[in-house]
C-alpha cells in the first residue's frame, strides 16, 4: 500500500533580507495575487502563510480591493495566517517581546477570521525552551519546527509532545520545490527521508523562500501520484495532518540547538553587535520600566506602548535581529530602534510628569526624592538621576546641556533658547525601600568604601588589579583572570570561522578616571580600545564598559574570563528562566575545518539573554548575546566584524546559507560601546544582580509636601518579576 502524504502549499516569507522590505513586498504582491486567484478557481484547496500575520498586512496595504477575498478564504479554511506577528528568533528577544509578538499576531489574525493556530517555527535558527512556554501560555497546542533537532534525541519520531504541545519536526525542512519542476525521482527520495522519521502519515511542505505558489496544484498532484511508487499525496493543510496523526510523549530536550542534522547558524548571535546592544536597552526599558510603571499608574499610555512594541517587533522579522541582511535592511532596523528609543523616552517623561502633577510634587529639593523600585530586590542603595540642579550629597558624573523636563510637561509654555540649561547626571545613596513599591527616600551622606589607584579598584566585596599587564579579579577567596583576545574571522554573518591563533591584547596605560565618594572608575587603555572599570560602595560586581574604535575587518574580539577548572556545564538565562548546557570543553572547531558536505561544524558557541554562569564565574551583559567555551575559558563576544551575508568558502559550513552579497557595514568600522559585568556566584545570584546592572528604577524629584509610600504589587519568595503581559504579572519562580 502507498503511504499517505499530507502536503500543504506555502511560501516562506523573509520580510527583508538580501533585498529591502519594499522590494520584497512588490514580489509578495505578485506571489499572493496568484494565491488568491488559484484558490478562487479551486485549483488548490489551501495555502499556509508562513505562520505570520504581518505579510498579510503588507499585502493589503497595497491591495485593499482584495480584503473580502482574504476574509472569505480564511473563514472557509482555505487560507491560514498567524499566530505570530512576525516570524521571530527565540534566542535574541526577551519573553515579553515573545509574548507580545504572539499577542499582536493572534489579535490581527482573529480580526481576519482565523480561529485555529499552529506555532509555526519552520526556519528560525534553533528553538529555545521559552518558545514552547510562550505557546503554552497563549493556549496554542500545536507547533511545527525544523532547525536544531537531533533525530536521535526524539527517538527518530518526528511527532512528539512538548509542554503539552503537539509538535511535528519537518525532517527535511520546509524548502521543497520538487513539485514545481515535476522532479519525481527527487521527490521520491525526499519522501523516503521524511518516511524514515514518520509513522503512518507524512507531512510535506510544498514551497520555498519567496517562491510563487504551485499553479494548477490539484491537477499536477493527480498526475504526480500516478508516477510515485510508494506514496500518495493528498493536498491538504497542516491542521488536517494534526487531526490525523498520533503524537507520543517522549523525553525531548529542553531546547533544540543541535546542528548535527540541520544548520543553526550560530554566528548570528554576534553579527552586528551594536544592534543587539541597542535591542537589549530598549527591551529592558519597555518590559521592566515603562510598561510596569504605566500599568500600575493606570494604563494611560498602553496604546503608545503597543505602538512601540509593534515597531520593535518588526525588527524581529526573520533575518532582521540576526543581522544577516544587506546594509540597507539593517539601516531600516536601526531607524526602528531609534524610533522606539525616542518613544520610550517621551512616555517615561509623561509618566513622571503625570505622577508629579497628581501628587502636587513641584519645585526642587536637596535631601529627598521619590523612588519607584521596579526591581526584584529590596533596598536599592544607589540611584542615578539626571536633573537641572545638584542634589545634596550627590556625586556628579556627567554634565550636558538641555531642557528641564518640567518645562516640557507644561503645554502652556514654549521652551526657548534661554531655557537651555545644564543637566547633571549624578549618583546618590538613598534610605531603605521595597521592591515593586514607591517610596519617598532620604538622600544619605555617602560612606566611601571604594579604593582606587592606577592599578587597583576595590570595595569590601570585589577587586580588580592590573599586574604584569594582566587583569585579575578576586572576591578575596577566588581569583580569575580577565583578558581581551582577538582572532581573524574568515566566516560570514551566519557563522564565525576562526583562523590562526588568538592574540591577547596588552594594556598600554592605566589611570584613575575619577575617584568619587559613591563610585570610582579605573581606565585601562589598549590599542584602539578603552576599558573602563566602575565600582560603587556596595556593588558585588565589577562593571566594565569597553569603548572599541574598530579599524579592522574580519575579526572577532572577546572578553575572556579564565576560571580555575575546565568548564563542563554552564547556566545561562533563556528568554524565560534558566537553561543548563553540558559542554565538551576540549572541542576546538579549528581541528575539524573545513566542514565536509553537507555539514555545519559544531561550535562551542551558545546564546544567552543577559548572563552566563560557570564554575563560580558570572558574566552579565547588555546585548552581548553570545558566549563560547574552551577548556577553562568563558569567552563573551564584544564585537565580530564580517563583510558578507554568506561566504561560499566558509570553512565551518559546507553549503551557502544565503547569497554572497557584501555588507561592509557589518564590519563595524565604527566606535562600538559594549557593557558587561563580572561577579562571583551562581545562577540565582546572577538574577539578583540583573536589576542593579540594568538600573530598573525610576526617580521622581521635587518638593514633597508629605512622604508617599505604597506597594505596587507582591511577588512570591524566590521569584523573579519579568514584566506585564495582558494585565498579568509574568513571574519566574526558582525551582
Notes on the structure:
By secondary structure, the protein is of the alpha+beta class. Helices cover 24% and strands 29% of the residues. The strands form six sheets. Strands 16, 17, 18, 19, 20, 21, 26, 29, 32 and 33 form a ten-stranded antiparallel β-sheet that branches. A nine-stranded antiparallel β-sheet has the order 22-23-24-25-34-31-30-27-28. Strands 11, 12, 13, 14, 15, 35 and 36 form a seven-stranded antiparallel β-sheet that branches. It is globular.
Care to give the gist of this entry?
The chain is an alpha+beta fold and 735 residues long.
- How many β-strand stretches? 38
As a whole number of angstroms, the C-alpha radius of gyration is: 27 Å
CATH topology of the domain at 3-264: 7-stranded beta/alpha barrel
Alpha carbon gap, first and last residue: 50 Å
Apparent shape: globular
Which CATH class of the domain at 3-264? Alpha Beta
Per CATH, the superfamily of the domain at 3-264 is Glycoside hydrolase 38, N terminal domain
Percent of residues in helical segments? 10-25%
- Structural class given helices, strands, pairing? alpha+beta
Keyphrases for this structure?
735 residues, alpha+beta, 7-stranded beta/alpha barrel, 10-stranded antiparallel beta sheet, 9-stranded antiparallel beta sheet, 13 helices, globular
Topology of this structure?
Elements: E1 3-10, H1 21-40, E2 47-48, H2 54-60, H3 67-75, E3 79-80, H4 95-111, E4 119-121, H5 129-137, E5 142-145, E6 159-162, E7 165-169, H6 184-195, E8 201-206, H7 217-227, E9 231-235, H8 238-244, E10 248-249, H9 273-296, H10 302-314, H11 327-358, E11 368-373, E12 382-387, E13 395-402, H12 405-409, E14 421-430, E15 437-444, E16 451-452, E17 456-458, E18 463-467, E19 470-474, E20 479-489, E21 498-504, E22 509-515, E23 519-526, E24 529-536, E25 542-549, E26 555-562, E27 569-573, E28 578-582, E29 605-607, E30 611-614, E31 617-621, E32 626-630, E33 633-641, E34 671-680, H13 683-694, E35 697-700, E36 710-711, E37 719-725, E38 728-733
Parallel strand pairs: 1-2, 1-8, 1-9, 2-3, 4-5, 5-7, 6-10
Antiparallel strand pairs: 6-7, 11-15, 11-35, 12-14, 13-14, 14-15, 15-36, 16-17, 17-18, 18-19, 19-20, 20-21, 20-26, 22-23, 23-24, 24-25, 25-34, 26-33, 27-28, 27-30, 29-32, 30-31, 31-34, 32-33, 37-38
Helix pairs in contact: 4-5, 9-10, 9-11, 10-11
Amino acid at each position: 500500500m502507498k503511504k499517505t502524504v499530507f502536503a500543504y502549499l506555502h511560501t516562506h516569507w523573509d520580510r527583508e533580507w538580501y533585498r529591502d522590505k519594499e522590494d520584497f513586498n512588490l514580489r509578495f504582491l505578485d506571489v499572493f495575487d496568484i494565491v488568491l486567484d488559484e484558490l478562487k478557481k479551486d485549483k488548490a484547496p489551501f495555502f499556509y502563510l508562513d505562520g505570520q500575520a504581518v505579510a498579510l498586512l503588507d499585502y493589503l496595504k497595497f491591495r485593499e480591493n482584495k480584503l473580502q477575498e482574504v476574509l472569505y478564504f480564511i473563514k472557509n479554511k482555505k487560507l491560514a495566517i498567524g499566530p505570530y506577528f512576525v516570524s521571530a528568533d527565540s534566542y535574541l528577544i526577551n519573553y515579553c517581546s515573545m509574548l507580545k509578538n504572539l499577542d499582536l499576531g493572534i489579535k490581527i489574525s482573529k480580526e481576519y477570521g482565523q480561529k485555529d493556530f499552529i506555532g509555526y517555527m519552520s526556519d528560525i535558527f534553533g528553538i529555545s525552551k521559552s518558545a514552547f512556554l510562550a505557546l503554552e501560555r497563549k493556549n496554542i497546542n500545536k507547533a511545527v519546527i525544523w532547525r536544531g533537532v537531533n533525530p536521535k534525541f526524539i527517538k527518530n519520531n518526528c511527532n512528539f509532545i512538548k509542554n503539552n504541545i503537539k509538535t511535528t519536526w519537518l525532517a527535511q525542512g520546509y524548502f521543497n520545490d520538487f513539485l514545481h519542476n515535476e522532479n519525481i525521482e527527487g521527490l521520491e527520495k525526499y519522501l523516503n527521508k521524511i518516511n524514515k522519521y514518520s509513522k503512518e502519515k507524512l507531512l510535506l511542505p510544498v514551497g520555498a523562500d519567496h517562491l510563487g505558489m504551485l499553479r494548477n496544484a490539484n491537477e499536477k498532484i493527480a498526475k504526480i501520484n500516478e508516477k510515485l511508487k510508494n506514496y500518495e499525496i493528498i493536498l491538504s493543510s497542516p491542521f488536517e495532518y494534526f487531526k490525523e496523526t498520533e503524537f507520543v510523549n517522549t523525553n525531548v530536550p529542553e531546547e533544540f540547538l543541535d546542528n548535527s542534522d540541520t544548520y543553526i547558524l550560530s554566528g548570528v548571535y554576534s553579527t552586528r553587535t551594536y544592534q543587539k546592544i541597542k535591542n537589549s536597552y530598549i527591551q529592558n526599558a519597555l518590559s521592566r520600566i515603562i510598561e510596569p510603571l504605566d500599568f500600575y499608574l493606570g494604563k494611560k499610555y498602553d496604546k503608545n506602548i503597543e505602538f512601540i512594541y509593534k515597531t520593535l517587533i518588526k525588527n524581529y522579522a526573520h533575518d532582521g535581529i540576526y543581522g544577516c541582511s544587506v546594509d540597507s535592511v539593517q539601516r531600516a532596523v536601526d531607524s526602528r530602534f531609534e524610533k522606539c528609543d525616542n518613544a520610550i523616552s517621551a512616555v517615561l517623561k509623561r509618566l513622571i510628569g503625570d505622577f508629579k502633577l497628581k501628587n502636587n510634587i513641584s519645585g526642587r529639593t536637596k535631601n529627598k526624592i521619590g523612588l519607584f523600585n521596579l526591581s526584584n530586590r529590596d533596598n536599592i542603595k544607589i540611584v542615578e538621576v539626571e536633573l537641572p540642579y545638584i542634589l545634596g550629597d550627590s556625586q556628579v558624573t556627567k554634565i550636558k546641556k538641555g531642557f528641564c523636563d518640567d518645562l516640557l510637561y507644561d503645554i502652556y509654555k514654549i521652551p526657548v533658547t534661554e531655557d537651555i540649561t545644564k543637566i547633571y547626571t549624578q549618583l546618590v545613596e538613598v534610605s531603605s525601600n521595597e521592591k515593586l513599591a514607591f517610596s519617598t527616600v532620604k538622600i544619605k551622606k555617602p560612606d566611601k568604601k571604594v579604593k582606587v589607584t592606577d592599578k587597583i579598584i576595590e570595595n569590601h566585596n570585589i577587586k580588580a588589579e592590573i599586574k604584569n599587564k594582566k587583569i585579575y579579579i578576586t572576591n578575596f577567596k577566588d581569583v580569575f583572570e580577565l583578558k581581551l583576545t582577538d582572532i581573524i574571522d574568515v566566516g560570514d554573518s551566519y557563522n564565525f570561522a576562526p583562523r590562526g591563533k588568538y592574540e591577547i591584547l596588552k594594556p598600554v596605560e592605566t589611570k584613575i578616571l575619577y575617584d568619587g565618594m559613591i563610585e570610582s572608575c579605573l581606565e585601562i587603555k589598549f590599542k584602539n580600545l578603552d576599558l573602563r572599570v566602575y565600582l560603587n560602595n556596595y556593588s558585588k560586581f565589577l562593571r566594565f564598559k569597553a569603548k572599541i574604535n574598530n579599524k579592522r575587518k574580519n575579526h572577532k574580539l572577546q572578553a575572556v574570563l579564565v576560571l580555575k577548572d575546565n568548564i563542563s556545564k554552564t547556566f545561562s538565562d533563556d528568554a524565560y528562566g534558566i537553561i543548563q548546557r553540558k559542554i565538551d570543553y576540549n572541542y576546538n572547531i579549528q581541528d575539524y575545518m573545513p566542514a565536509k558536505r553537507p555539514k555545519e561544524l559544531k561550535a562551542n558557541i551558545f546564546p544567552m539573554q543577559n548572563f552566563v554562569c560557570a564554575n563560580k564565574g558570572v558574566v552579565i551583559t547588555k546585548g552581548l548575546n553570545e558566549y563560547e567555551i574552551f577548556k577553562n575559558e568563558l569567552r563573551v563576544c564584544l564585537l565580530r566584524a564580517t563583510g558578507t551575508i554568506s561566504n561560499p568558502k566558509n570553512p565551518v559550513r559546507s553549503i551557502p546559507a544565503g547569497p554572497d552579497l557584501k555588507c561592509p557595514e557589518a564590519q563595524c568600522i565604527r566606535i562600538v560601546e559594549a557593557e558587561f559585568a563580572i561577579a562571583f556566584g551562581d545562577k540565582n545570584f546572577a538574577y539578583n544582580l540583573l536589576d542593579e546592572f540594568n538600573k530598573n528604577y525610576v526617580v521622581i524629584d521635587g518638593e514633597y509636601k508629605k512622604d508617599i509610600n505604597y506597594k505596587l504589587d507582591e511577588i512570591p519568595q524566590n521569584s523573579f518579576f519579568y514584566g506585564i503581559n495582558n494585565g498579568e504579572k509574568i513571574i519566574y519562580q526558582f525551582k
